[in-house]
Design a protein that fits this description.
Elements lengths: L6 H18 L30 H16 L6 H8 L3 H7 L3 H24 L8 H18 L5 H6 L3 H25 L5 H24 L4 H20 L20
Helix pairs in contact: 2-3, 2-5, 3-4, 5-6, 5-8, 8-9, 9-10
Length: about 260
């Protein structure tokens, strides 16, 4: 008969088996330390960038960016506040509504372009080549339109708002008057009425071809080149009038179409 194991041998075998099992199992992961009280630590709050030092300028810039990206239909105070990193309450403290934001944006853009153009116009009387002066003024104005947020899209917004359209017209008239004053300093024979009319036509040609160049970017350079050629040819009739030519700078404009 087989010999039966002694009780001590059985206990030693069981102990050896458990020890081997423990040594073969992977080590237990250390328990995560908990703060006193047994609660999980709260997640760190997401850090928000500080609000802008000049909320009004930040709001106008944000509005211009949104207009350029999605157009006037995507412009609302909530989107502007989010983009400008301000609260909607701050937006309403600075502006009445979306239309007020749009008006302020247009005013800021027009003022910058107008002041820049007027600085060029002031050189018309002293510079030998008036064409170069006006070409530089046009290039600068177009560059500002393309670079400033909202510079292009506000022109499209004019089509949907008679109020903004009239406002733009008034601004163009004021800028044309400044151009007319500089033209009269260069060509004293120009009457005030004739100079205002010629300057208004010149700026209207300029703005219209700027708009067309925005709509047809593939022909942008060609269109801007044609703009300078057309504008210079027209102004030369008054700034460099031929003796006895059809465009007498001293004559008053008439309401009739020329025959």
């Amino acid at each position: 008969m087989p010999r039966r194991k002694a009780p001590d041998d059985t206990r030693k075998s069981a102990t050896s088996t458990r020890a081997a099992a423990r040594s073969a199992s992977p080590p237990a992961m250390p328990a995560r330390a908990r703060p006193s009280g047994g609660r999980e630590p709260a997640a760190a709050p997401r850090r928000r960038s500080p609000p802008p030092a000049d909320p009004r300028s930040a709001i106008l810039r944000a509005a211009g960016e949104i207009l350029d990206e999605v157009g006037i239909d995507g412009l609302n105070t909530t989107a502007v506040a989010r983009r400008a990193n301000v609260s909607t309450g701050t937006v309403y403290r600075e502006f009445k509504d979306k239309q007020d934001i749009l008006r302020a944006l247009m005013q800021a853009l027009m003022t910058e372009r107008g002041d820049t153009a007027a600085a060029h116009y002031s050189r018309l009387a002293s510079e030998a080549d008036w064409r170069a002066v006006l070409a530089e003024a046009s290039r600068t104005a177009y560059r500002l339109r393309m670079q400033r947020p909202g510079g292009r899209s506000t022109r499209r917004a004019l089509q949907a708002s008679p109020e903004l359209w009239q406002w733009d017209l008034d601004h163009t008239r004021a800028l044309a008057h400044r151009l007319a004053q500089s033209m009269r300093k260069r060509q004293p024979a120009l009457t005030a009425a004739r100079a205002d009319l010629v300057a208004m036509v010149s700026l209207t040609i300029t703005v219209a071809l700027f708009d067309l160049a925005n709509l047809e970017p593939r022909r942008e350079k060609a269109l801007l080149g044609e703009l300078l050629a057309a504008r210079d040819a027209y102004l030369a009739l008054y700034l460099d009038p031929p003796a006895g030519g059809p465009c007498d700078p001293s004559s008053e404009p008439t309401q009739d179409m020329p025959t």
